[in-house]
Amino acid sequence: MIYFVTSNKGKFVEAEAIFGDLVQKNIGYTEIQADTLEEVASFGMNEVVSRLQGPVMLEDAGLFIDALKGFPGVYSAYGQKTIGNQGILKLMEGVQDRKAHFRSVVSYAEPGMEPVMFAGEVHGRIGHEARGTKGFGYDPIFCVGKMSLGEMEIVEKNKISHRAASMKALKNWLDKR
Ligand code: ITT
Questions:
Q1: Atom 31 in ligand 1: residue holding the nearest Cα
Q2: Does residue 104 sit in helix, strand or coil?
Q3: Which 3 state secondary structure label does DSSP give 77?
Q4: Looking at 60, 97, 139, 175, which residue is catalytic?
Q5: Is the CB of residue 72 below 6 angstroms from any atom belonging to ligand 1?
Q6: CA gap 118, 125 in Å, rounded
Q7: Within a 13 Å sphere around the CA of 30, how many CA atoms are in the beta-carbon half?
Q8: Distances (CA, A) of 74 to 98, 114, 120
Q9: Distance from the alpha carbon of residue 146 to the mean position of ligand 1, in angstroms
Q10: How far apart are CA 64 and CA 42, in angstroms?
Q11: pTM summary value
């Protein structure tokens, strides 16, 4: 059993499909404003491990759009809350280069252990409209091939996603220990 500290149900169900024995803890932790996902994902670790006294993971993820020089990136949660998908589509109006990627960094630790971190990425493009009602966040505007992530079932998203890559790497590491 692992505690996954997150407020995001969408992230949790995707992680649960990979790990099985996960417990969501919506306890909040100190999320710093930093330049990298790694700094955000590692900063809160000591705090949550000592509070929960067990195996803990947390994850920080973001959408990086080439034409916007990586925006919203580490500000993805704020971007989603404020301008949202329609705001991103607006910023991308008339923009030819639609390349973007999602990146996920998962951090894991047990009491008395130095945290380990694993990263994952998925490359795709920003669509011209929001499509699909599955998934969450930026999924409807992020396309891989002909489909948006918002049109994919969790099993399909988990074959290609940033989160699936970082979490499968962690699972591999745990299985091999
Ligand atoms: P926690 O920090 O509580 O885990 P959060 O929703 O704030 O939840 P992040 O800071 O990691 O999570 O994510 C930043 C935002 O990026 C998030 O609010 C989503 O809108 C978006 N995002 C992350 N992963 C995504 C995915 O797989 N598909 C679509 N949007 C995603």
A1: 137
A2: strand
A3: helix
A4: 60
A5: no
A6: 24
A7: 10
A8: 19, 24, 15
A9: 23
A10: 20
A11: 0.96
Decide whether any atom of ligand 1 lies within 6 Å of the 77 Cβ: yes
Q: What is the pLDDT of residues 80-103, one digit of tens each?
A: 999 999 999 999 999 999 999 999
Tokens encoding 58: 């947390």
- Cβ of 6 closer than 6 Å to ligand 1, yes or no, is yes
CATH topology of domain 2-175: Maf protein (3.90.950)
Cα angle for residues 123, 156, 107 (degrees, 5° grid):
65
Q: Please give the average pLDDT of every successive group of 10 residues along the chain, which has 177 residues.
A: 96 97 91 89 89 95 98 97 98 98 97 95 98 98 98 98 98 97
Q: Is 166 in the pocket of ligand 1 (CB under 6 A)?
A: no
Structure tokens at 155: 């099993």
CA of 16 to the centre of ligand 1 (A): 16
